[in-house]
Amino acid sequence: MRKIDRLEDELGCKLFIRDQSGLSLSDEGRSLLFDVEQMERLSFNIFRRASLSTDTQGSVRVAVTEGPGNFWILPRLIDFQKTYRRITVDLSCAMQQADVSRLEADISIQFERPTNPEVIVTKLGRLHIYGFVSEAYRDAHGLPTSLADLRNHRIIKQHGVQLDETGYARILGLESLEGIVGISTNSSVAVLYAVERGAGIGFLPTSAIALGAPLVPVDLGINYHMDLWLTYHKEFRSSDRHKVVIDWLKRIFDPKVHACFRDEFIHPVDLVPLMAETRDIVGFNGYVAPKPV
Question: Which GO MF terms are attached to this record (predicted)?
Answer without folding.
Answer: DNA-binding transcription factor activity; sequence-specific DNA binding
